Fold this sequence. Notes:
Blueprint: H1 7-34, H2 36-39, E1 45-46, H3 49-60, H4 62-75, E2 83-84, H5 107-112, H6 114-117
Parallel strand pairs: 1-2
Amino acid sequence: MLSSATKPLAAxxxxxxxxxxxxLILFLKAYRVLISPLYGQVCxxxxxxxxxxxxxITVHGAVRGSYLAxxxxxxxxxxxxxxxxxxxxxxxxxxxFAGLPMESTPRIVVLNHPERYLDHLHDGTxxxxxxx
Length: 132
């Protein structure tokens, strides 16, 4: 257990450790609000590149998340087939937010994985395959 003298030092260390992640998340959220709407729905992938980057940094941290986002941006071009492209799972199951209640899962993870978090079984049948 930490002594009362080392608690403030640990809090400062934790703040500095998560500062790059928080700065990147803030930048991506600002981009999604201010710039992304100007382009409209042009991304060939689901989730969009900015949503992919936001989830990658949220789950994997600033360094690995930025690497995954850059790799995704290189794959996103006019000659790409596109499709569904989720971020790779984190080694730590807790970081994937699997099995956690939806209230404690970051919103971007819920939005990027509707098959995992949204209930498609309203009346006992799959609403996506229901006859009209």
